[in-house]
Please model this.
Amino acid sequence: MEKKKITVKELAQKLGVSISTVSKALNDSYEISDKTKKRVRRLAEKYNYKPNRLAVNLKSGNTRTIGVILPSILSNFFTAVLYGIEQVTNEADYSIITCFSNESFDREVTYVDILSNGAIDGLIVAIAEETQIKKDFSHFENCIEEGNPVVMFDRVTKAIDCDKVVVDDFNDARMATQHLMDCGCQNVALVSAIDFLSVGKDRVKGFVSKVEETLGHVDREMIIRCSVDELEERLNQILESRLVDGFFAVDEDASLAICKVAKKRGITVPDELSVIGYAGEKLATNVAPGLTTVNQNGVSIGREAARIMLDRIESDKGPFTKKVITTTIERRASTQRKK
Model:
């Protein structure tokens, strides 16, 4: 029995023509007659021949592949960003290779080294938690020095000169805090389990800025910054020692912990406690009552990061850009205006 899949060389031998003729026929070159094209395509179809896309792209000096490194596979936000990236790259006939650092510095370094070794035309990345803590970004510097453009999004660093796509976490936090105040909250607390990340720090700064602007001072005891494992304990402590009528949760774990603790303590949301936080739409709409969230527009971030990357690949000119994506507040029952 003959092989179902063969090489372009074997196709040429069976047809009695050159490899160049087969290649040109499959690429619909004007140099090849329609009769020969039909012969070549008919035999290629018979043997299920498919050109090696990677080999073709490498020969042309362009892999038409973009690497994407995300900190987590479980995050609704990063899933939305990946969806946006895929939309744009697919439209441009580019492929993506997606890796997950799982917040590990070592994994991130490994993936950057693997991808930047000729497998991709550019890298889109959100920096891992451990990398931000270590403040070691040399693997990105090496990637850029090797000629690979890098686009960072959400979690970025000033230490690396490259294109960046972000949201304005500082002003988003001010907006979220103001929303709680507009709902009648007078004692607003902040809860964060991501204070080690740049986005977490900026959100705390925004909260402090808005409270100081409104009240003239900030009660530092109303700011909870801790690990995920400590969230429930710290929330119970503040609810026992402070009069709190509004919570601003700067990450999804904090949002969930607030809802869980409030329910256990018999605190009615939003009548006794208003809550605004960060969470994916599915989660926000399935908790009771529905959670008001800061919508980071992850799909838009992904689409913009991909567009910037494609522009950089096709024309590596001009200064680096920093695109700020507009966010919105998705109002749900957890911040229903108090009477």
User: Anything to note?
Assistant: The two ends are 81 Å apart (CA to CA).
